[in-house]
Amino acid sequence: MAPTPSAAAGAWQSPPSVAAWRHNDAREGFEVTFFRPHGSGWRLQGSTAAVEPGQAWIVEYTIEIDAGWRTLHARVTSRSVAGLFHLELEGDAHGSWRVDGRPAPRLQGCLDVDLEASAMTNCLPVHRLPLVPGVPAAAPAAYVRADGLAVERLEQTYERMPGDEPRFAYAAPAFDTACELRFDGAGLVVDYPGLAVRVR
């Protein structure tokens, strides 16, 4: 039996078995993610192959989340001309993290993993947060770079916009990013301006 949406999410549908995005503008590439029930939550397995100015890379990931869509475990592999890199993240669902087995106090308070290589990971906060239209919600994340898998703390906010369509004002000041993200009924991003569009 598939897990039901979390109370914070409202009426999100269960995710599809597979979703795909075409990356554009900032980079050219393609991402595919498979969603499988895992315990009381989900296992998200996917990969992105992309080309951006000066480099090309492939990133594969497995992310395990609980019923509240909080990241518990992530394994990420990146391959580029710089070599092959592996990363393991462990979260306790309360804001503490370990990176490759070592405590990472700089990530304290983060509940999500956010992969630079992935449009899919933008779905994690919107499922988890009790987003009230017009009220920004902080969603700091363990942000993983695509080439080399460096891990940073990323401060970001999501604000649900009025109306029946699931639209969110997203901001990440460190990247000077502020845009409107559109989602579907399962809480998966449909259009991330300048980065990706959903194709399945």
TrEMBL record:
Pfam families in alphabetical order: Glycolipid_bind
InterPro entries cross-referenced by the UniProt entry: Glycolipid-bd_prot_put
Protein name as annotated: Glycolipid-binding domain-containing protein
Species: Georgenia yuyongxinii
